[in-house]
Amino acid sequence: xxxxxxxxxSSTPLAGLKVLEMxxxxxxxxxAKTLADFGADVIKIExxxxxxxxRKWRLxxxxxxxxxxxQSRNKKSVAxxxxxxxxxxxxxxxxxxxxxxxxxxxxxxxEGWGLGPEALFALNPKxxxxxxxxxxxxxxxxxxxxxxxxAEAMGGLRHLTAEPGRTPVRVGISIGDTLASLHGVIGILMxxxxxxxxxxxxxxxxxxxxxxxxxMESLLPEYSEFGVVREPAGSALPGIAPSNAYLCQDGAxxxxxxxxxxxxxxxxxxMGRDDLGQDPALADNAGRVIRIxxxxxxxxxxxxxxxxxxxxxxxxxxxxxxxxxxxxxDIANDPHxxxxxxxxxxxxxxxxxxxxxxxxxxxxxxxxxxxxxxxxIGQDTDTVLRDLGLTPEQIxxxxxxxxxx
Length: 405
Known about the structure:
Elements: E1 18-21, H1 27-37, E2 41-46, E3 60-61, E4 64-65, H2 68-71, E5 75-79, H3 85-96, E6 100-103, H4 109-112, H5 117-123, E7 128-133, H6 148-154, H7 157-160, H8 175-198, E8 203-207, H9 208-213, H10 219-226, E9 243-247, E10 253-257, H11 261-271, H12 274-277, H13 285-290, H14 292-303, H15 308-317, E11 322-324, H16 328-332, H17 335-339, E12 343-347, E13 353-357, H18 381-387, H19 392-400
Parallel strand pairs: 1-2, 1-6, 2-5, 6-7, 7-8
Antiparallel strand pairs: 3-4, 9-10, 10-11, 12-13
């Protein structure tokens, strides 16, 4: 048997990659965070004084969002007023040394600052530029403001997230932004691979709504071929049977995916319903879809007699995919999450410990690392500017003018 390469603690896969992050809130910064977790040297540009608005979102500790420690770990912070020509010149100097630039401003903003692709590629033809926006850099909607919640609706997701006949609900997190970020990271890695051959960079244009739409599975071909508009189905998975959430005796729900042919038979045996499991008409998915109401009723009648713990124990024994609905309290205390390093204790500057999500994906030889906590606003401004050749006197002058912080 071939053994896996040993973990190299001193190396990360993106070590030496220089990334300039000019976005804010979620989409651009999440992409940069993902690169930073795997060793990229990320310089985050923030406005002086206020910083990234995410610093003040949701629950705060000592005036700063605890979310900030997730989104901006492993990054350096440089505070610049991008509306000022001197700050724009600093960005150009940083781009000369950067491999990747990430921005998620409205289309046209970078061009308005003299920092569009043509200007930056003239300085550094090897630069890779990730541009995340609501609707993309082209098309009739390019100039409309676009947030993830709107993209989720336009991309087709929001229509499906509801109980039939009820108001569609949001997923509960900024899934549109995160999907766009991950598509952006994929684009960056592909562009880096291509740059090894061509020696030149390129623009990666990611639209929030397109990232959502890209995950919509069979919606379009089903409409194209059959004129079918998939409708909301609550917790069920239409056309895949059985797969649903079933209420248990203790008021909790068990999610049960018995939609494989052999899995369905094992599920029926565990429920004491071999009459269903051995029914030839239910031997495949097509037959089960026709009688899904009957099957769901049978499963629901069984789960209603048992606690969710007992249901899951029985289904684990029968090798039927099932689980409960986790709250964050369940996640934080789950032994599997802990064993895989997904509940990461982060030591803060004040000596306290904050739990943050671990790193995904897991590489066997060069895994990602959390090397430093999220920075204060402008924490690294002086160091970065000195590395660009600015003198302490020049930096102080820019600070007095409010251009840097």
